[in-house]
Amino acid sequence: MKISRTSAICVTVALGAMVAALPALSQDTPESLLPPGFNDPVEPAPSPTPAPAATPQGGETLVRPAGPPDDLTGNAALGNDSLGVAVAEELTPEELERYELPAFARRSLNRVGFAAAGRGGLPANAFGGDNGRFLEVLMRRLDAPIASRWLSIALRRALVSEVDTPAGVNGADFAAERAWLLIRMGEANAARGVVQSVDVADYTPKMFQIAQQAALATGDPAGMCPLVDGAMRVSAERGWRVAEAMCAALAGRPEEAGRLIDAARRQGAARGIDLVLAEKIVGAGAQGRRAVTVEWDNVDRLDAWRWGLAAATGEVVPARLIDTVGPQVRLWQALAPALPAADRLASAELAAVRGVYSGAAYRDLFALVSEAQDVAGSDATVIEGLTDAYAAQSIEGRLTALRNLWQGSTPIQRHARLVLTSDAAARIPAAEAYVGDADALIASMLTAGKDLRALRWRGLVPARSDGWAMLALADPAGRIAVDGGDLSAYGGAESRKAQLLFAGLAGLGRLPENQVADIAQALAVPINTDNSWTDAIRTAASRGEPGTVLLLAAVGMQTSDWRGVSPVALFNIVAALDAVGLNGEARMIAAEAIARA
């Protein structure tokens, strides 16, 4: 049953009602993840020796020389005299920005993102042309994580796409909201890409704030360096003063960095562990001479500042502190390249389930760990099992290794192992002798979108098994016929798996039209339910807005557990995605529901 198109509806009223109905899941302004006091303004203290003024020029720093100005022009030469470049001693920020980035090289705020259509991104009009404020409110209030791995992957794609800025919002602010949601989803690298798709000259106060969070989430304090001067003009946050010192060190100016970090200490811009970590960054800069030892014993909480600076220097944060914060920090940890691979493994398990890691990335991390000489315990067992799953001489040996890997102790671990083994599962030939493992093999292959490989089992898997149900949903051609009798027999009437299978098939339009209402009633799935959310997602689908549909779909899956996703929500999500051309995502989400129910 395809999605019905909503007509004669006042879109503004419907969407506004939906916003009003959403729970206040977060603040109206980005929650600062910095330590207490970092948001407080601080008065600059006089420095014993004034530092020379510096302004960023491209990737370098141009420093005005000390001494009197030129007698005739009042200008001081900057850089290579052969270029004939001279800049007035007193430049307004606007004049400086024009000097640094010519108008022809500036990017428009009318279209922001780094994944263009045809290169992994959605179409430019994916979010429609209006209701920009509505979209920003949805992003701000969305409570990550999202139940579906495949929906998380699709939402990431929407948020990084090069899309038109909707009416009523600033392009930089709209990009900042997208990046802030990505940060909360654990997609630190994607968030950094979004903030970097806006020219610094166009940054708003909101964008400066989110850009700092993205730099910290990726463990890359150097990412703040091009922003420091502009941020300090619009923000009194103490974090930027400390960042100024770290950036001076990273730019190879240790004496200036020392003066700035000492001034930050005197002014109280940072203290305790926050100052120690900043000093470690300063000491790690070119010619840095400050030896710093980080002690975590008296630290009772973790925040983005502490995480970001620790990750930048390869400082492993104690697990007891990681356990005190949201799951997004574990996902940042999984992506942090400066940390030892073995210290990222536990977090990588969650990253695989949330869609932050692909199966290939997860396997690559285990390959890095296997190169160490002292691998032991459960990590060694997984590495051995993964090796056998690919390289055992017999198919039965490979299947035995796969079965052992799939025996996870928690739902998260079990699904992570399905992600981990997707390629190995695809190498098992479809044959009657191995049909007992078909359900798990199919589920594993579909975590990587290998629908055609999984369909080799069509005709072999028993009817009304989980493998049969997943293939009925995943087949792009819809060749597996399912009727009401099949659904009733699959787990029994009102079985949750039967309800989810019905919701997926109905959303994809794969059930006989004349049976849908009766099956819905028999399985107690009221797919015709109307509320502000169903009105909004149906309206977005009828208008052909895949980005808005994905965002609203995520609103309907604001839970870390599939048990919190209703069949009615799944029906509307699958139908809306199918209607806007995201059939592949719709099929994979529906099949995932069976695998994880």
Please, could you describe this protein's structure?
There is one protein chain. Among the domains are: 137-320, Serine Threonine Protein Phosphatase 5, Tetratricopeptide repeat (Alpha Horseshoe), CATH 1.25.40; 358-462; 470-597, no CATH class. The chain contains 30 helices and six strands. It has helices at 11-21, 93-100, 132-141, 149-160, 171-184, 188-195, 205-217, 228-234, 238-250, 254-267, 272-284, 304-312, 319-322, 327-335, 341-354, 359-370, 377-391, 395-406, 411-420, 422-426, 438-447, 451-454, 466-474, 484-489, 496-507, 516-522, 532-542, 546-555, 567-579, 583-596, and strands at residues 54-57, 60-63, 75-77, 86-88, 111-112, 163-164. The strands form three sheets. It has a two-stranded antiparallel sheet. A two-stranded antiparallel sheet has the order 3-4. The protein has a two-stranded antiparallel sheet with strand order 5-6. The radius of gyration is 27 Å and the shape is globular. The two termini are 23 Å apart.
Would you spell out the secondary-structure blueprint of this structure?
Elements: H1 11-21, E1 54-57, E2 60-63, E3 75-77, E4 86-88, H2 93-100, E5 111-112, H3 132-141, H4 149-160, E6 163-164, H5 171-184, H6 188-195, H7 205-217, H8 228-234, H9 238-250, H10 254-267, H11 272-284, H12 304-312, H13 319-322, H14 327-335, H15 341-354, H16 359-370, H17 377-391, H18 395-406, H19 411-420, H20 422-426, H21 438-447, H22 451-454, H23 466-474, H24 484-489, H25 496-507, H26 516-522, H27 532-542, H28 546-555, H29 567-579, H30 583-596
Antiparallel strand pairs: 1-2, 3-4, 5-6
Helix pairs in contact: 1-27, 3-5, 4-28, 4-30, 5-6, 5-7, 6-7, 7-12, 8-9, 9-10, 9-11, 10-11, 11-12, 14-15, 15-16, 15-19, 16-17, 17-18, 19-21, 21-23, 21-30, 23-30, 25-29, 25-30, 27-28, 27-29, 28-29, 29-30
